[in-house]
């Protein structure tokens, strides 16, 4: 049985995470007088959220905008720049919509932007999550193939195919995020009819008393959480881990190959690690909340965990969208060199494919298999 409070904890763009949402779909007369034990904590967490949102907006828009400018207009287009350009676009779209979330939280969770923007805001958020993780999957697979089959990759890997694959990733991400556009709705808070909440209406109904309608809401809610966890986290990271296990195994067997693979390998490994650390708590909190609400006996210990954990986990997910440009800068080259160079040079250095710095030249017949492998590793590990 859910314990509901009279004040929303976190009815943000991911309100389905919080069982304390006071939106219409979660209110019942049985709990209107339930004591709000976390009111002061809630206020502190919401204030923290506002700070994180503003920080993510400023750093994300400026950082990702700069990455888009450099990779899209200032650098020679390569397969690498196609991958990182799409990753930056996904993060830029998300951070560009953050002022809506800032306003929503600052106005005590009143949504003044209408139903369409409520739907679009949530959809963009999950579009960013799915697009980012599957772009990382594509990058990992690309690098794995480049290491294991360097000659084949050199002959078949090009900008046109990378662009088509990127388009496919965006379409797949749009499919996975479309349910959030369908189910998102606005309605008056049961505590104050003048306050409009942006929430998930999983039954497309204002009927909150009928057992069948309630069961439908719960089923769809659980289905979306499980699907998001599997397709947005478990499966992608299983593929990524497998790819990098193969890469590491190959590099250990070929030290010459490893010596030319350090910096690009570290950059993408850092990006993947940051994504994992930022999104893992979010998915864990969602599963804890779902299990607790479905349990025969509601656990107030887990309730306290989600009360604290949900806003922190969601804030981490927000911050991920502004971390990548910082990683590109601080891992693109030695720190002392970065102090002597402009930010554009640093980003360009981080993204430039190593093949442009190699003295080796690819020919169809003039390179041995070993020298081909070494040259290609410079470009794409």
Automatic annotation (TrEMBL):
<dbReference type="InterPro" id="IPR000826">
    <property type="entry name" value="Formyl_rcpt-rel"/>
</dbReference>
<feature type="transmembrane region" description="Helical">
    <location>
        <begin position="162"/>
        <end position="183"/>
    </location>
</feature>
<protein>
    <recommendedName>
        <fullName>G-protein coupled receptors family 1 profile domain-containing protein</fullName>
    </recommendedName>
</protein>
<comment type="similarity">
    <text>Belongs to the G-protein coupled receptor 1 family.</text>
</comment>
<dbReference type="InterPro" id="IPR000276">
    <property type="entry name" value="GPCR_Rhodpsn"/>
</dbReference>
<dbReference type="GO" id="GO:0004875">
    <property type="term" value="F:complement receptor activity"/>
</dbReference>
<dbReference type="GO" id="GO:0007200">
    <property type="term" value="P:phospholipase C-activating G protein-coupled receptor signaling pathway"/>
</dbReference>
<dbReference type="InterPro" id="IPR017452">
    <property type="entry name" value="GPCR_Rhodpsn_7TM"/>
</dbReference>
<dbReference type="GO" id="GO:0005886">
    <property type="term" value="C:plasma membrane"/>
</dbReference>
<dbReference type="GO" id="GO:0004930">
    <property type="term" value="F:G protein-coupled receptor activity"/>
</dbReference>
<keyword id="KW-1133">Transmembrane helix</keyword>
<feature type="transmembrane region" description="Helical">
    <location>
        <begin position="122"/>
        <end position="141"/>
    </location>
</feature>
<comment type="similarity">
    <text>Belongs to the chemokine-like receptor (CMKLR) family.</text>
</comment>
<feature type="transmembrane region" description="Helical">
    <location>
        <begin position="82"/>
        <end position="102"/>
    </location>
</feature>
<dbReference type="GO" id="GO:0006935">
    <property type="term" value="P:chemotaxis"/>
</dbReference>
<dbReference type="Pfam" id="PF00001">
    <property type="entry name" value="7tm_1"/>
</dbReference>
<keyword id="KW-0472">Membrane</keyword>
<feature type="domain" description="G-protein coupled receptors family 1 profile">
    <location>
        <begin position="63"/>
        <end position="328"/>
    </location>
</feature>
<keyword id="KW-0145">Chemotaxis</keyword>
<keyword id="KW-0297">G-protein coupled receptor</keyword>
<dbReference type="GO" id="GO:0006954">
    <property type="term" value="P:inflammatory response"/>
</dbReference>
<feature type="compositionally biased region" description="Basic and acidic residues">
    <location>
        <begin position="370"/>
        <end position="381"/>
    </location>
</feature>
<feature type="transmembrane region" description="Helical">
    <location>
        <begin position="308"/>
        <end position="331"/>
    </location>
</feature>
<feature type="region of interest" description="Disordered">
    <location>
        <begin position="360"/>
        <end position="381"/>
    </location>
</feature>
<dbReference type="GO" id="GO:0007204">
    <property type="term" value="P:positive regulation of cytosolic calcium ion concentration"/>
</dbReference>
<feature type="transmembrane region" description="Helical">
    <location>
        <begin position="225"/>
        <end position="247"/>
    </location>
</feature>
<keyword id="KW-0675">Receptor</keyword>
<keyword id="KW-0807">Transducer</keyword>
<feature type="compositionally biased region" description="Polar residues">
    <location>
        <begin position="360"/>
        <end position="369"/>
    </location>
</feature>
<feature type="transmembrane region" description="Helical">
    <location>
        <begin position="50"/>
        <end position="70"/>
    </location>
</feature>
<keyword id="KW-1015">Disulfide bond</keyword>
<feature type="transmembrane region" description="Helical">
    <location>
        <begin position="267"/>
        <end position="288"/>
    </location>
</feature>
<keyword id="KW-0812">Transmembrane</keyword>
């Amino acid at each position: 049985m859910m314990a509901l409070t009279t004040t929303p904890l976190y009815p943000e763009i991911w309100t389905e995470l919080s069982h304390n949402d006071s939106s219409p779909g979660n209110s019942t007369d049985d709990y209107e007088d339930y004591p709000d034990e976390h009111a002061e904590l809630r206020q502190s967490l919401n204030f923290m959220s506002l700070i994180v949102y503003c920080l993510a907006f400023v750093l994300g828009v400026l950082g990702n905008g700069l990455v888009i400018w450099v990779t899209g207009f200032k650098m020679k287009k390569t397969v690498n720049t196609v991958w990182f350009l799409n990753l930056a676009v996904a993060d830029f779209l998300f951070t560009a919509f953050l002022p809506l979330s800032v306003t929503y939280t600052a106005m005590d969770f009143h949504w003044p932007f209408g139903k369409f923007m409520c739907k679009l805001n949530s959809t963009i958020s999950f579009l960013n999550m799915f697009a980012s993780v599957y772009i990382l999957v594509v990058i990992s697979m690309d690098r794995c193939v480049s290491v294991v089959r360097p000659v084949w990759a050199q002959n078949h890997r090009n900008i046109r195919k990378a662009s088509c694959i990127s388009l496919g990733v965006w379409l797949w991400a749009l499919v996975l995020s479309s349910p959030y556009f369908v189910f998102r709705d606005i309605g008056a808070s049961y505590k104050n009819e003048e306050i409009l909440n942006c929430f998930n209406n999983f039954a497309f109904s204002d009927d909150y008393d009928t057992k069948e309608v309630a069961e439908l809401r719960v089923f769809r809610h659980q289905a979306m959480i499980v699907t998001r966890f599997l397709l947005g986290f478990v499966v992608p990271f299983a593929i990524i881990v497998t790819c990098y296990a193969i890469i590491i195994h190959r590099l250990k067997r070929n030290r010459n190959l490893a010596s030319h693979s350090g910096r690009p390998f570290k950059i993408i490994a850092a990006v993947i690690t940051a994504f994992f650390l930022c999104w893992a708590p979010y998915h864990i909190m969602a599963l804890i909340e779902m299990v607790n609400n479905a349990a025969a006996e509601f656990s107030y210990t887990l309730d306290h965990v989600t009360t604290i954990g949900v806003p922190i986990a969601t804030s981490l997910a927000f911050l991920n969208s502004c971390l990548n440009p910082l990683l590109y800068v601080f891992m693109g080259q030695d720190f002392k060199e970065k102090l002597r160079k402009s930010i554009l040079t640093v980003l360009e250095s981080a993204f430039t494919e190593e093949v442009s710095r190699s003295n080796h030249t690819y020919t169809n017949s003039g390179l041995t298999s070993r020298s081909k492998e070494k040259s290609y590793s410079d470009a794409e590990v």
